[in-house]
Write a structure and sequence with these properties.
732 residues, Methane Monooxygenase Hydroxylase, Chain G, domain 1, transmembrane, membrane, transmembrane helix, YccS_N, Memb_transporter_dom, 27 helices, single chain, mainly alpha
Length: 732
């Protein structure tokens, strides 16, 4: 229990929350005056507004980003506050700034964070709109706050320059461990395998994101120079993590068949499940030690556990008088092969963090690293191409512009005490998609009410200002921490500390709570209604795009697997890129489906078929990966003509599926008859060829394993591709 809690306290969200809270407290107390706390409040606000843009990156990019946003904040605040009394100037300026701030989110992760910061700045520009005489002073304080945060960020960076990326790696190891833990649960006899597979897909999406973050860091920090032991560790760790995920995805087993096979001694499968669970425990332990900066020691001996299990399984096969050529015996050998290789990869990852990495271990690890990373390009053409209603970002920018303008008008008409809270709520809640906006609206209202009640209760029950201050600092830290983990809990703590601050600085905290709840409800309602009715973006459109991308990526990957089996040797860069893209596109498809099912039922057209296609795509890419992985770790025989024709048949089915969905794809009409002949050849001829070979028993077993796995996977992939084609035909 303590370890789990410590793992959460050691993650990047908590690290960033400490940085933000520390900056806010120091800034406030440096500029605090008992006579007027405006300066302290404004400097702190400037610092907090800069925080979202502070992400791990090249140090130069970090500084440029923080300095840029530090100057943009006071410029925007000055422009809006100065023109506020002149409606016909203010209104178009406000709308243009909101639109551009929202629209730049199309340029990727960093731009999305900058977009959020600028929208927050626009919302908060009206705090002192009724005091134009202090406008320049406030803008100066905002600039000072931004520069102060930049300074603190630089200090934190030099204290622990590798802290952020090491925590990213630790999180990747931890979630990979959770992924393997879910796989171990598949061996439970009555397990809900559909639910577990869905959870595994969700984990896979996050793992792919973390792989990309690590690649980005290595590319931007010129890891190819191998200029530090930490970079060397990161390179080997990334390679090991990719291999662990691929091995797991590539080795999917028919758990019911294995349960039936070992029915006379079900303790064997229980022991295998324990071993599979140990994979997860080992990775989580490693993640814990990285986060706590402690030397890692293995908590068990996976190799010994595997040897004992292998002996038990071999004895069981002999006692059951099962031939080594039996299909079940071959499947068991493939199961043991997976476990053996996974242990090898996990032990290799452990070794990275137990000792220094030698240069020899890096051979080939960093080759063509840049090709696996997708950089963000800020091009004018991209901007112009999205200036139309086909673009979801364009519709989102128009929608949030209109909604914020209406929110501002509503606040002024009804003379709300703090109308800018309506705008803040809209900015924080509104997302391009309906599902997430709806969810965040509910969570924000609930969190605001609970946090407000807790805050007022604390003010009534606690007389000590020191105790209230400590409570406010703790709740601020927890608020920023949980905002990235559980939004509802994060809003609860943020509201809690805001009410405590008001209670410490003014005498009307109860009134402020009522206004805050009212503003939050109005803002949430406006955001929800606008997302539902104003140029809405439904996930179904994106789902179709992700489905097309997924099918095309799998097609390319299957082609690469085909040529890899023909050529043998080390996997080529094009093979690895195709594999990476296939995994990512299938993950994107799953994430898109999860968003779609949060939308109104009327917008979930072909929901059953789309879910089936999502699962079929995931299973197909796993099957293709299993062939690729087998080729990588075994010396395989020459690819037969039948193998090539079956792979072509699978690809042709995917092309037909794309054609059914009205996407471009080349189809070969006369391939089906060749496929039937090829499958017959694969089934009937391969075993006879192997049994006639003049080789020792061990070599025969190995070739039978190859034959069994390759043939089974080809038949399975053929069936999957046929199901995909038939399902897309239903949607035509």
């Amino acid at each position: 229990m303590f370890d789990k809690l410590f793992l959460k306290f050691g993650d990047n969200q908590f690290y960033n929350a400490i940085k933000i809270t520390f900056t806010a407290i120091v800034a406030f107390f440096i500029f605090y005056s008992s006579a007027d706390f405006t300066a302290a409040f404004t400097v702190t606000l400037g610092a907090l507004l800069c925080a979202p843009i502070d992400i791990s990156s090249n140090f130069k990019h970090k500084i440029i980003g923080l300095l840029l946003v530090s100057f943009l904040i006071p410029i925007i605040s000055f422009s809006l506050t100065y023109t506020y009394p002149y409606f016909y100037i203010f209104a178009p300026l406000f709308c243009v700034l909101v639109f551009l701030s929202a629209f730049i989110s199309l340029f990727g992760h960093r731009a999305n964070l900058l977009s959020f910061t600028l929208l927050l700045t626009i919302s908060l520009s009206f705090i002192h709109h009724d005091k134009p005489e202090i406008l320049l002073t406030n803008c100066f304080y905002l600039l000072l706050g931004g520069l102060f945060y930049t300074l603190i960020s630089i200090v934190f960076y030099f204290i622990k320059p590798n802290r952020y990326i090491n925590l990213e790696v630790a999180e990747c190891i931890e979630i990979t461990g959770e992924y393997l833990e879910l796989r171990s649960k598949l061996w439970i006899e009555n397990a809900d395998r559909e639910k577990i597979n869905r959870q595994m897909l969700e984990k896979q999406v996050r793992i792919n994101e973390l792989h990309e973050h690590i690649r980005e860091y290595l590319v931007y920090n010129k890891a190819r120079t191998l200029n530090s032991n930490n970079n060397r560790k990161l390179l080997v760790a990334l390679s090991s993590l990719v291999d662990i995920l691929e091995l797991a995805m590539a080795n999917t087993f028919n758990h019911k068949e294995f349960i039936e096979f070992f029915k006379d001694d079900d303790s064997i499968l229980a022991e295998y499940k324990t071993l599979a669970h140990s994979f997860s425990v080992t990775l989580k332990s490693l993640a814990f030690h990285i986060k706590t900066n402690k030397k890692h020691h293995s908590i068990g001996n996976l190799a010994n556990d595997f040897k004992k299990l292998k002996l038990r399984i071999n004895d069981y096969v002999k006692n059951q008088n099962i031939s080594i050529y039996d299909e079940n015996a071959v499947n068991v050998n493939n199961l043991l092969f997976y476990a053996d290789k996974q242990i090898e990869k996990i032990k290799g990852l452990e070794r990275v963090y137990k000792e220094r990495v030698n240069a020899d271990e890096l051979r080939g690890k960093y080759r063509d690293l840049e090709k696996f990373f997708t950089p963000e390009h800020y091009r004018l053409k991209t901007f112009l191409d999205h200036l139309n209603f086909k673009s979801s970002t364009f519709r989102y920018a128009l929608r949030i512009t209109l909604t914020m303008f209406v929110g501002l008008i509503v606040g002024n008409i009804f003379n709300f005490e703090n109308a800018y809270w309506i705008l803040l709520t809209i900015v924080v809640i509104m997302r391009p998609g309906y599902g997430l906006t709806k969810q965040r609206s509910t969570h924000r209202v609930i969190g605001t009410i609970i946090g407000g009640i807790l805050g007022i209760s604390a003010l009534i029950l606690i007389d000590s200002n020191i105790a209230l201050s400590v409570l406010a600092i703790i709740s601020m830290l927890l608020g920023y921490w949980f905002s990235g983990i559980d939004y509802k809990v994060g809003v609860t703590f943020v509201t809690f500390y805001v009410i405590l601050i008001y209670g410490l600085l003014t005498d009307n905290a109860e009134t402020q709570l009522i206004y805050r709840i009212l503003d939050t409800v109005v803002g949430a309602l406006l955001a929800f209604l606008a997302t539902r009715f104003v140029w809405p973006t439904w996930e179904l459109n994106s789902m179709n795009i992700h489905l097309e991308n997924s099918l095309k990526a799998i097609k390319l990957y299957i082609i690469e697997v085909k040529y890899y089996y023909i050529k043998k040797g080390e996997p080529s860069t094009s093979y690895k890129l195709a594999r990476k893209n296939a995994f990512i596109e299938v993950g994107n498809l799953m994430a898109s489906f999860q968003r779609m099912i949060q939308e109104p039922k009327g917008k979930q057209v072909n929901r059953a078929e789309l879910y089936e296609l999502t699962v079929l795509n995931q299973t197909l890419v796993s099957s293709a990966a299993s062939i690729g992985t087998y080729i990588q770790f075994h010396k395989t025989t020459e690819a037969s003509k039948a193998f090539k024709l079956v792979m072509d048949y699978i690809n042709n089915n995917l092309s037909q599926s794309l054609h059914n969905l009205d996407f471009d794809a080349e189809i070969t009409s006369d391939i089906e008859e060749d496929f039937k002949i090829s499958i017959t050849e694969l089934k009937a001829i391969r075993r006879q060829e192997v049994e006639k070979l003049d080789i020792d028993e061990a070599s025969k077993i190995q070739k039978l394993e190859e034959s069994q796995l390759i043939i089974d996977q080809l038949i399975w992939m053929s069936n999957l591709s046929e199901k995909i084609e038939k399902t897309t035909l239903k949607m035509k």
